[in-house]
Structure formats: C-alpha cells, structure tokens
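Quick look at the format.
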Amino acid sequence: MAPWRVLYGAVLIVAALAAVPPPEAHAQPAADFVPVTDAVLQDPAPADWLMWRRTLDAWGYSPLDQIDRDNVGDLRMVWSRALHPGSQQGTPLVYDGVLYMPNPRDTIQALDAATGDLLWEYRRPRPDDLHEHVYTALGEANRNIAIYGRLLIGTSADGYAYAVDAATGRLAWETRIVDYTRHPAHQTSGPIIAGGKVVSGRGCLPAGGPHACVITAHDAETGAELWRRPLIPAPGEPGDETWGDVPYEERTHVGAWMVPSYDPELNIVYVGTSVSSPAPKFMLGGADKTHLYHNSTLALDADTGEIAWYYQHLNDHWDLDHPFERILLDTAVAPDPGIVSWINPRLRPGEVRKVVTGIPGKTGVVYTLDRETGEFLWATPTVAQNVVSHIDGATGAVSENAELVFTREGQEVLVCPAFVTGGKDWEAGAYSPLTGLMYFPLRNTCARMMADSEQPLYALAKRDQIAPGTDQVGAVHAISAETGETVWTYEQRAGTTSLVATGGGLVFGGDGNGRFRAHDQENGDVLWEINLGSMVTGFPITYAAGGRQYVVASTGWSMSSTDNLRLTPELRPGTGNNIFVFALARSSQGGQE
C-alpha cells in the first residue's frame, strides 16, 4: 500500500470490553457516585473540571484562587503518572475528587485526584488493521471525553460513540457513527453535552467521500442517535450550487474535528469546520466557488441539528482550517477603529451583545459575531497574515488575497501563516472575566506553498519558515474581547501550546520545548516555570480536592509541535507521555473554596 493511502482510511469494528480494575485499583463504590446533571454542567462546582474547556462557553477558566500571583512561585510537583503511548493531547476531567484522563489509543484512566493512584482503566480494543485505514497520529489522539449522569462518554478511532460507567469503567453503551470500511473518519476530539445530547464532530478523509463529514447527536443515557448534520450539501440541498459541477462523492474533507460550544439559553451548538480537499479550489470546481460549509462557524439547533445560521471565515486555498474553540460571551462591543481592521458600521459602540468570539482559524484573525444571528461585528489580524485582504464590515464578506489564490499546477506563493500549524492550531486559548481578555497561543509562521496534485490530501507542497521580522516561533497574545486591543504579547523561540486562566490572576500554558509556566494575566510576566523534559501537548486544567488546588500539565507528542520544531532545530525536547500535577507547598496554602 502506498504510504499516503494510509491517510485516506479508517477502521470499524464492533468493539469494547468491560473494564476490570487492576489488582492495585480501588474503584469508587458505585452507590456513592452522584450523577452529573445538565444543571451541574451549566454551573459546575469551582473544584471540578467537567468538560473540555471546563464550561459550555469554552472559556477555559477556573475561579479557583488558592494559587495566585503572590504564591505561584511556591508550586511543587505532587504527583505524576506515565500515560499510554501514542499521540498525547488529552484533557483531564475532574469530578468529586476523581481525575479521568483520556489516554491515546482510546484508553481512559480514573485516578485519585489527590494522589494519582489508579482506580480503574478502560482500554478499548482496537482493530488490528486500524493503521491501514487511519493515519496513525489521527487514530491515536484522544483530546477529550465528556461526563453525564454516571457515564463518561467519548468517540473512538473505530468510528463509535461510547460510554463507560464513571464509577467502575465498565462499558455502558456504544453506537456506530461511521463505517470505516466505506466512510473513513478520524475522531481526535470527543463530544460536548448539550441538554442531555452527546454532540460530536469528526475529521473526514477523502477516501470516504462526504458521508463521514457529519456532526451527530446521541442520547447521553442510551447512545441512540438523535440527529445527523451533514457538512457538505448534497444535490438539491441549500448550498449545493456552491460546489459547482463537482460530483457529490468527490466533495470531501469538510470536517468539524474540534469540540463544540453550547448556549443553553438559546439552545444552540456552535461548531467550526475545516478546509476541503484538495485545498486549491481550481482543482475542485473552480476558485470562484465557496464550497459550503468549509471554514465556517455553524450555529446548530441542539434539538434538531438544523443550521440556524452560518458564517464563512475564508474561502480557503491553503489548508488554513477554522475548526477551533468558539468562546461565548455577553460583552460590551466597542472595537477600537484605530486598532481593529474591520468593523460593522451599524455597531453602536458599547452595546452589550451576545457574541461568539476568538481566533477560530489558522489565519490568526480574531472574529467576533453576534451569536443569536451570526451578524459580523468585527475582526482583526494578530500574527503575520497575508491571505485575508479585506472584510466588508456591513456584510461580513471576506475577500482573499487574489495574488495568493492558486490558478494552476506548479504555482508557488508565500503564504502567512503556514498550513499544518497555522497562526493558531487546535491548542486552545482561554478567557478571564477578571480582565476581560482572551489569551491565545499563536505562532509566527509562513510557508512557501505550491499547488501539486501529486501531494496527498491537500495537493499542497510546502517549505516552512519563521515569519519575516522575528526569530520567535511561539507567542501568547492577550486581546480585549470588548475593544480588540492586544493588551500584551509574550514571544519565545518555541511554539506555545494550550492555556488555562484562573481566579488567581494567572494564565498557565506550555510549549513545544517542554516548558510549563504561569503568566500574570494583566501583563504577561512569567511568574513561574518548570522544564518537564518533553513537549507539553495536553490541555492544562486546574481543580481542587480536599481543600487543595492543583494544576495539571501533560506531555507527549503531536504533529503541530513537531512541525514547529523544524523551525527551531536547536531545540531537542523529549516526547514522553506523562501527566504532571502541581500544588502549593503546604506552608504556602491559603483559603480555598
């Protein structure tokens, strides 16, 4: 089999054995487990971290403040644990003193949150031929799981949604979403719970046509499928015309491979989508076509999956995906015209709006939309970018840089940011209500790209480089959600990774060179740092157990961090999969909720 064909497949097998605690495990008695309700998910206890970004609005913020700017220098490692092999990008969940860690290769561990002792492990059987159908890195990553009732719920590389009992680790239900033999997909990210529904997206591979390019909802208690939202219009459906004369089976790769957000009041799920394949649109029906719904924000009715509204951020020719976190805020909207590039002229500055905001794509452009209607409010670049030349403030219509749009085979252009890692990738930012600032891990990258139909997946060849004017690959930008002002910027040689903000006035985050650090939310100063030896690839969190606040980092391997390291050849971090947990020295602890 040609090596590139590995990228075009997936697998499916009826799988999953009941988990049995190992001899040293001491599983929580099932009778003591308090079920997690929608009310709990909508207002989690400060001590807990119940979903990917802790809350349904994707803030990545915890109100815990025992660790603060004054004492963060007293952090000490209190426990660590090796994780299973594979591409490690996990987010721990913490509920009632138990930490649930999604490991690579569809394994979940339940650990005592105070000690790291193993309570139980569920290891989902994987088909022997999985590597023949799913590109290895995309078949290994397991970025998050969800919790509802007494169940932990995930999506697996073999094309299933599944649930295990949170107290015992035993399989409760499984439901096939895609048939890997016909419609391969990769499920690197898990679901969010929206009103008792398990809502998940996936990346879909070209070999499977459009059929795996779907967002699905399942009943959290039973696993029954409730709705299925295709991301590529079929003939006769709204948006069909945006693909021109491209046959339906050749419309591929519009995925939703990151975790949605959810507004319970509006009952709307917000999700971002990725680029189509091949990326140069002259190879896919014409550069003048918009190919819905690629690189868009979709607002979906949580009960039906119907599209309430959509906004397309970019007609993408360069694999600059837009599937990342959508931050939901109620905020005054007053973009500063001296700073912000594109503003809706109908805005009344200072008016409080319900918005969906952040940096949803690899271009590094911050977009703010009205989350009730999808109306464009404002947008502005952050890192070096040359693909978006203009956005019409009145309509939100995006104009791409015509000089960079591929029109023929072999054409070469300099594109900023670079594809694969972009100005931003799947590593998540955070929002703090203490400052009104959004914090994002960004990259200063560009690439020489060439349209090449012989290249796998995207039909793009590339040579990466650091953006002109700097020798720093990584950055953290702190951006006002109200005005669009970049309040502070921290730059460094290594690429930065996911962030978490806390009630102690801190932003914790890591990088591809193994450093994990705490920034001051107000000015970006580094107040504490440790070398963990391997690339920090997991999503950091903070939680409390027994009156003590803990901070979690995890290390391993990811394609994006490895890609960034090609730009910094002097850096040589390890790739060991481990979880590291920190707390204050006992003598430094203050009051704790």
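Next, a different chain entirely:
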Amino acid sequence: MTLAVSVMGLSIAGAMLALILVSLRRREPVVPDSDIAEALQDRLWQIAESEERYRVLVEATTQAVVQRDGQGRITFASEGFAALLGVKPLELIGSTLTPQVIERGASEQRPDGVRVVEERLVPVDGVPRWFSFIEMPAAGRTDGPSWLRAGQDVTGRVEAARSLDEAKSRAEAANVAKSRFLATVSHELRTPLNGILGMADLLLDTPLNPEQRTYVEAFRTSGKALLGLVDGILDFSRIEAGRLDLAAEPFDVAALVEGVVELLAPRAQDKGLEIALDIADDLTALRVGDADRVRQILVNLAGNAIKFTQAGGVGVSLARAGEGQREGFVLTIEDTGPGIPEERIPILFEEFEQGEDSASHEGTGLGLAITRRLVERMNGTIEARSTVGRGSIFRVVLPLPAAEGAPVPVPQPTLAPRKILIVAASPYQAPFLARRLSRSGAAAVVVDSAEAGLDALSGVAFDALIADRSLGDAAVRRLAAEAARSGVRCSLILLSPFDRREFGAPSAKGFDSYLIKPVRARSLFDRLLEPRPTPARGTADAPALPAPVQSEPVQSAMAQSGPGRRVLLAEDNPINALLATKALERLGAQVILARDGLETLAAVDGQGPFDLALIDIRMPGLDGLEVARRIRAREAETGAEPLHLVALTANTGREDVTAAFAAGFDNFLPKPLNLRALPGLLNRRAEAA
C-alpha cells in the first residue's frame, strides 16, 4: 500500500507539470513574460518538493526499489538497492545487474497482478539476508511493460520463524521418543507383573493359613495397583503420540453405565459409602462410539469420587443431551467428598496434578488428564464444580450419535396414583429412587429416619414402603410391622450385596421382597408390580432370597475344564511359561512348551495335532505374528484343520489387537494373564470339536 501511494504521488507530480505545459499552449489572454516565468518557477518548486517528499517516503518505507523495462534494464534504482551491489544508483541505469539469489521462500500471486516473493540474497558484503519483495507492473513503453520491485529486509522474521519451526520439530520428535519409551517400559513392566499376579492367584489356590493368605492377598492387591499405574502411563503415551484410535461401533450406553456402577459398588460399600445410578427414561441407549473408552472415562471419574469420599456416597446420572446432529448423552458424577478449592479446578485436568496435598494421594495424577483427552477426542466436553466441605460434581457431555435403527425408548410402566414411602438416610440412592418413581406418576416421599418413617405411616395411606437396612435391623422391623398394620400392600428392604445372606429371608422380617443397591430401574418396577402372595406375611411362601455372589477361587473356576486337551504354549519368559503351564495342567491339559518362533513351528509340524495354541507376540527369532501367518499359510497349502490360535501379549492397544487378528489369531489375551479365561478357551475348543 505504501509503495502504491509513493508511485501515485510521482504520477500526480508529472501530471501537474503536463497541465502547466498544456495551459501555455492554449490561446489564453496575454500576460507579461515575467508573470509567466514566476508562475512556472513556483510550480516547478512545488513539483520538486512533492518529488522529494515521495522520494523520502519511499526510502523510509522500503530498503530496495528498482524499476526495469521490458528488456530487464534498470530505469530507476534506490540508494538501498544500489547499496546491495556496492554502487551508486546512477551507475545502475541501463544495466541488468541484480544481487545473487541463493534461496527462494514463500511466494504469492495476487489477483490484481501484484506478486509477493521472499528471496535470500548475497549483498556485496557477503552476508546473506532475506528480503520480501513486492512486484507490480508499471507504465508501459514501446519496448514492453516495465516492472517495479520494492523490498524490505525480513531476515530477523524469517530466521525467527525457522528457529521456531525447528524447535517445534525437535519438541515433537522428543515427545514421540518419550511416548515410545513409555510404551516400551510399560510393556516391560507388564511382563513381570504377569508373573507376580499370576503366581499370586496360583498360590491363593493352595492350602494357606490365614496369615499367609493375608500376605498373598496384600501383594496381589499391590500388583494390581501397579498394573493400574502402568495402564495409565501407557494410555497417556498413546494419546500424546496420536496413536490412540477410537472405535465407532454400536453399544448400549445404559447397560455399560449400569455395569460400571455395579462393578464399583463393592469398593464403595467397603468404605461404608453408597453408590447410586439414575438413567433418564427418554434416553436412546444404543449409541455409536468406543464403549471401552466411555467405560474408562466413567471408571476414572466415579473411581476418583469413591477414592476421595470418606462419608456419604457417590451418585451417577445418565441423561440425553443436545438435539439433532449434536444429540448425545451426559454423564454426571456427584459425591459428598471433601470438595476442591475453586482455584484448583482449572488445573484439575492437567498432567501429573493430584489433590491439594499430593503427599496424601496415590497415583500419577494422569487419570483426569487422560479422561479430558479422551472426552476431547470424542468432541465432547468435561467440566467440574465443587464446594469445599460439600462435595464435587463432574459433568461429561459426549455427542455420540444414536445407532442406525436404534429402538425408541420404551415408556416405563405407570405407577400413578400410588404413594410410596422411602425411609433411608441416603444422599443419592433415596433421591434417585424418588426421582425415578415420580417420572412414572407415583407420589414419592423420602424421610431419613425410622422415627420420621413411623410418623409418616401413621398419617398417610401409602401403597408401598422401601426401607434401607442401614437404619438398623430393629428399626426396619418396626417399619415393616407398622406398614403391615397400616395396610401397606408392598414392603421392600434395601440391601447392599454384603447384606443379602446376613439379613436372611425378607419375609422373616416382615418384608415382601428386597432391592439390591445400587438399584436398577427394572428391578424396582418388577418388585412394585409383581403380584402379592396371598398368604400372610411372615410365612414361608414369600420369595426366597438368592445366595450372594461369591468370588470363586481360581481352582473352582477352572475345575474340569480341559481334561485330555493338548495345548502348545509359545512363551520365552520362564516365569510366565511356568505360570501358564501350571494353570493349564490344573485344568487337565497336556502342555508342550516352545521358547521361540522356530520351536513353535517345529512343534506344530512334529508334535501335533494340538487343540489350542497360546503364542506370545514378542519372541526371539520369529515373532508371534509371523508364526501365526506361517501356520495359516501351511494350513491353506495342506488343507489341515485350522489350529485355534490365541495371542498373548503385554501390548494391549487397539492396533495390537487388530494386528493379531490380521495375522490369523482367533483370540487375544492381554498380560497379566487372567487365569479364569483359560477354562473358557478350552471349553470353547471342546465344543467346537
């Protein structure tokens, strides 16, 4: 723009001089020669001043200006351009000299014919410098159009930009190297952890006195904690390296959230906390996305809530969010924990950030950072609100679309006009039950003590009673008795999984049935709508209470799974080989061990047939992927029955699973090896046979 103004100024000056000459040629009234000379002199001074102004303006705003005719000969050169060649401007007139160009940078051709180019020149002093030139056509002559070129020294800017690019490239390379290092270290850590946790499981399956069992369970618990840290580091390294691929497959988000809450319930109840779930009625449950990563987000947030909450509980809500193309779902995790100071909320999701007193918290501080990265990868949002001393609320919105052909939400049965009394000192389970019942048309009343419950029963005709056993056995018996006396048609007792066997048959305490916390909506409706037995309460005709679910020992879970099966185990780590061999032998299988890829192929050819092959992906010589490919190729050539191949690896990324299946594996088992998965593999193979 500056150069254009400068050229325009010179053009105006020339035009003014032309007007003077024209006026002199016209037949104007005769004026004295002295007056004409004086006027002409004044006009010439004005033109000279204008020319000087524009010359100074050009010199001040550009460092090098040159104009050439159609043959490339210089018709004008500024002092700055001449200085690049070490000569005076007048010495360049008529020449075709130009500074040496050793490198060209960015260039731009504009629609108006103006071109912007960057060139690295070697001036007369020999020190290369970068110039940004503007080229534009000037007034044409008989020998063709001329070109005006004006440039500015931009060496500092170009070198600074290049330094920044180089620094960015180095940082990215260092980041990739760090991520690869973390992935490698994580793999190497998982390998010995496989031995630690697997041997602990085997040891727990042997006769131990109580003290020994306590010690073994302690180091198994520590091993699992270490495995969780390793998994977090590995996930973070994948995210940073941009290697975390998200699946886009249909999944039931309601079933997923229910499963996570029930998985975390024992951990919460061990601390005397409750965990409750509420799922909106209008939610389309079938979504398209990565179910494993959604589960990871919820486990991280709800697990943290349980970890830092000492009294009260944790509430998880799932509801619909957004409309149209942005329609998704929202997860809300609330707790009654200590809360987070307001000034710390903005840095909660940063890497390696922990609680306010980091010495009192375990872990790497990566959980929330990974959660935020996963949410952002799904184009979602995450936010936190907290009040010190009153708890925290985390809200995650994920715009995962409904799956094609997803069923429309089915309306829940109506409970209108029933009146239901909930007696529970509960921060979340009782309010969630009341919310669920109200959406179905029932009138729900919540009180937090047995005394308040007895008062309510004496004053209002309720159709159903739900009482929490945590109020005490004596208190809930009194509530059940008062409900029976008041004509309440259905009385339910709220139990934790640990309460089921200890509490005994609900009918013996005056209740019709029970609900297990966290309560599923369908269980609630089933209990409230099921026909009442005709015999009086307290008889043996009430529904029997199922036995509690117990975690099975490894031996009972694995018994009688694969007698007579021949298994090829390809594993180069001696501890892991011993672990898998002992576990398989306890199932009655005969194990043939191969310690590298070549031994594995030799065993398949010389010691087969096998019912099952467990092959480690990383082995010396031929790796497991190449072994699988060669086995499949030989089967194709000979027409042999396909061997059931299962990949064993400490690399658990989606790309690793994909590579294993692409190589010909039928199944994939991550390390540390879950011994309870082995019976299913042997049984599946037996059924296929």
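Residues 131 and 375 are 46 Å apart (CA to CA).

See the schema section for token definitions.
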